[in-house]
Amino acid sequence: MQKTEAVCKFLIVIIMVSLLSGCWDREELEDKAYVIGLGIDGSKHKGNIKVTMLLANPEVGSIQGGGGSTEKPREIITFEANDFIAAKATANAIISRSISYELLKIIVVSEEYARDKEFVKTIYDTLKDKQIRLNSYLAVSKEKASEYFLNNKPKMETRPHKYYQFMIEHGIENGLIPESTLLRFFKTMERGTDLYLAMYTTATRQKNPEYKKEDEYLAGQVRATGELDDTQFIGSAVFRNGRMITKLSGEETRNVNILDDSTNIKDVLVNFPNPFPGSEKQMSARMFKTENNKVKMNVKDPRPKIFITLPLQVEIMSNPSMANFAIKKNQKILKEKIEEDIRKINEEFFKKTQTELKGVPYPLSFSARKYFGTIQEYKKFNWAKSYLKAEIHVIPEIEIIDYGRQIKKPIKMGD
Fold it and tell me: How much is the pTM?
């Protein structure tokens, strides 16, 4: 009996090993064409969309490809299709390799189509393809998505997946673009109470743009000259119920990222008015968010009250007036000025969300739910409507951890 059991176990092990060691379903890297960027434009033919695929050559820049490869690092094709899934079959009539969305990094939709009521139906098709990951990013381009990919020619990064990885990660870390993943889009749609922000981009620089502060620009408005790529990522497109309604500048987008505890914002470079005499030049600082915001609400009154405390650490980067920060009085003046500036900017922004946007562009509604005992009570409160009349107070808690290097004022000639 024991011998029979031993034989059975041995046979089971042999069968399992043989199954695991099989290579019948192996796929070679060179057999696939990986879509790194997917563009969406509207079509003149009803029910169709115009799809643009940015295809990366995985062998370029790799050890397998060798240093002397003459193959192109990318290929771009545009055609009409019914949806993303049908688009893969159509693309294989043009591209020799099997089309794959496994490495899809970014979906770019033109601003024109993002404002179309049909867009939300189109983007939901991404849920039907298992290859499309929900951590892929959604972006809105000023021009048509097909033109955007053609005009986007990075100078330093030949591999498209690395270019978008670096641009998006750094933009999110400094707060000038939102962390606009597909997952966030669908979660926002499910809640139905908040607005969604998608990163705003363009590959066409605006001619003679108006001069603004460093963070007040939208993509395409940043003045830059030299041998560089024209593509810019700054600001955001605002969506309500899956449809674009307006845009926010880089500064406004950064405010939202600081208010939203779920973002990956790390350290931010900011400018603020100089409170000391001797120079009209603004001061610059690096701002860190080290802990979550503290939100308190009074939802019992006819007009709800919301109190948001922002705990932030600051490093002073410039001191144009050369104020002496060894003096406690100057430290106090600087701290109060930074807090006043942050409070004013945020409270003005919240007024804009109530009067123009008609909603808040991050999940502040989560903080309101804990004040209700049941889901029915929360629904009766009607967050979307109650928020518009709420009284909102922003309380910055600033800790200056570094005043920078102290330099003595230069002696004027003749003194």
Answer: 0.84
Q: Are residues 46 and 142 in the same domain?
A: yes
According to the model, what pLDDT value does residue 242 have? 94
Q: What is the pLDDT of residue 63?
A: 46
Instruction: Provide the total of helices (H) and of strands (E) in the chain, helices listed first.
Output: 12, 14
Residues of the chain with pLDDT under 50: 24-26, 63-66, 68, 413-415
Structural element, H or E, at residue 237: strand 232-240
Contact (Cβ atoms closer than 8 angstroms) between residue 235 and residue 213? no
Q: What CATH number has the domain bearing residue 333?
A: 3.30.300.210
* Coil, helix or strand at residue 186: helix
Choose the final residue of a domain: 261, 290, 306.
261
Same domain? For 238 and 274 the reply is no
Question: Are 176 and 278 found together in one domain?
Answer: no
Asked if residue 215 and residue 299 are part of one domain, the reply reads no
Q: Please state the domain count of the chain.
A: 2
The answer to whether 132 touches 163, Cβ cutoff 8 Å, is no
In this prediction, residue 41 carries a pLDDT of 95
**DSSP letter (8 states) at residue 282:** P
Can you give the pLDDT at residue 402? 92
For helices 250-259 and 328-352, the axis angle rounded to 10 degrees is: 100
Whether the CB-CB separation of 140 and 111 falls below 8 Å is answered with: yes
Q: Can you read off the two tokens belonging to residue 410?
A: 């230069």
pLDDT (0 to 100) of residue 390: 94
